[in-house]
Amino acid sequence: MLKAVYGTADTPAPRVMMVLKGLKTLITDRKLPYEIKKEGEDFVLYQVSSNWTIADAKARFSELVTDAQSKGPQTITKHGHPAAIVVAPDEWERKTKRSGSLADFFAASPLRNSGLEIMRRKDRAQNIEL
After folding, report:
1. 89: pLDDT confidence band, cut at 50, 70 and 90?
2. Which pTM does this prediction carry?
């Protein structure tokens, strides 16, 4: 629980407001599943549920998509177990984007100029009856 130690509930001290603003920016920028609510004199940090049952997801599909875009991935559960995850297109692109080709990967390998020699067997493969 976050408390405004200085000032009043209506006008917390500038330092407290600075911390709350920074925390809110962090939550928003990283799309973390949290929100800050003011309850009386306290500022409370709540974890926003990102789990949906299939029935809730069907009934409130538009809200599910909006939450995926604004709050991050949303998990749809079936019988209490994860069944699907809804993510925003920009996050999907970022996660699935390739960072190079296989040739680039091997070219950047620290073993490339290490002098490591791999010996291959000269004999043929064994014949196995199935």
Report:
1. very high
2. 0.46
